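Take one record.
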Amino acid sequence: MKTVYILQGSNEGNRHEYLDLSTIEIKKRIGAISAKSSTYESEPWGFEARQWFLNRVIVIETELHPLKVLQELLNIELEFGRKRADDGKYHSRTLDLDILFIDDQIISTPELEVPHPQIQKRRFTLLPLSEIAPCLVHPILHKTISELLSECTDQAKVKKI
């Protein structure tokens, strides 16, 4: 079994419903949910948008291969109306599902990079992650999530709701 940390996000439509319903789909398709953070509201990171994001982190126990986990998450995003732009920029979205960690694995392929390369730069990721896994050690940076949060220079507003 592998432990997978997933960041859920939504800033279009019924944000709460998208997070809740995608959690159900993840459980059906990928594996049992062993932990779930509180939900946080955060201003968009890297772009301007009318609606702020809702974010939370869930932890899944799965036997699936990492690329199969990724494919299932991409399918769920698509089914929930996610439209990806090809311009390389951030955009508003109904649902965003990012793999943050898979155990202490380091994966670098064209399809998947684990740990997620932006974790240490994003308060909206570190806050919910620190709530459920403060002692988790980043396998590349060799720091705990609590340490990364205390060192994070991101000034974006993030609040627990």
Observations:
- The two ends are 32 Å apart (CA to CA).
- The mean pLDDT is 93.
- The first strand starts at residue 2 and ends at 10.
- Residues 15-29 form the longest helix (15 residues).
